[in-house]
Amino acid sequence: MSNSPRLAIITGAGSGIGKATAFLLAQHLQTLVLMDTDASTLADLKTQLNAEHSLLRVDTYLLDVTQEMAVNAVFGQIADKYARLDILINAVGGGTAGGPPGAKLEDMSLAQWQTLLHLNLDSIFLCCRAAVPLMKRHQYGRIVNFSSIASHGRRDKVSVAYAASKAGVDGFTRKLSREVAPYGITCNAVAPGITLTERIDEKFWQVRSDTEKHEVLESIPVGRLSTPEEQAAVAVFLASEAASYLTGQIVEVSGGI
């Protein structure tokens, strides 16, 4: 990806894969719009990015992307301020918001089920719906969603709600890619394996015994967990000119699982 006047939005930018993506994209763009629900992490990220990239314009929005009115309002502000949107990285998501990550069906309440679908799927729907009209104005756009290899439903340590929500992301990505392709817009998804973000380290990895950790690593052909930067690198590629003929794809970044 070469330097250009393009503008990118990253949701869930304050931590994890979203934060790693922000640092990588900052090397290639002039304007980066970061969204998160944590004001302090957004402020810290903006300070770090400005220190490393003096010519980069960083804009931040405190936003819960599962809230329809708030999403519409913020994207409207961006449209008024910049009159364009070129790249949307939907990095919000997770499997721990709806109770224990590996909760069985009979132990899961309707509220827990709805929480994960709301977080992982509604957020992408709302942001894409707000972004696509802006991309159509310039007949150009790159949408990158984050799914998971859990969407196949074959991971024992995740809940049915998480698997269903990520399978929904896959289907949404493929279908939207067909709708927007005539307007110069691509839509792809990255499907990570276990990635050692701050949240996963705390809520999944550190609570495992040495035996359980060994079993997890044995299940991954490359023998280790992914870093957020490795996932971010694929997202940045999908947002680049090098991926201009790639759309409707779910790219699994799982170490060979």
How would you describe the overall organization of this protein?
- The protein has 257 residues and is of the alpha/beta class.
- The protein has a single domain, classed as Rossmann fold.
- 45% of the residues lie in helices and 17% in strands.
- The protein has eight helices and seven strands; from the N terminus they run E-H-E-H-E-H-E-H-E-H-E-H-H-H-E.
- The protein has helices at 16-25, 39-52, 68-82, 110-137, 160-180, 198-205, 210-218, 228-238, and strands spanning 4-11, 29-36, 57-62, 87-90, 141-146, 185-192, 250-253.
- A seven-stranded parallel beta sheet has the order 3-2-1-4-5-6-7, with helices on both faces.
- Strand 1, helix 1 and strand 2 form a beta-alpha-beta unit.
- Helix 3 (68-82) runs parallel beside helix 4 (110-137) and helix 4 runs parallel beside helix 5.
- The two termini are 28 Å apart.
- The relative contact order is 0.15.
- The model has no long low-confidence stretch (mean pLDDT 92).
- One of its GO terms (biological process) is fatty acid elongation.
- Keywords: Oxidoreductase.
- InterPro entries: NAD(P)-bd_dom_sf, Sc_DH/Rdtase_CS, SDR_fam.
- GO terms for molecular function: oxidoreductase activity, acting on the CH-OH group of donors, NAD or NADP as acceptor.
- Pfam families: adh_short_C2.
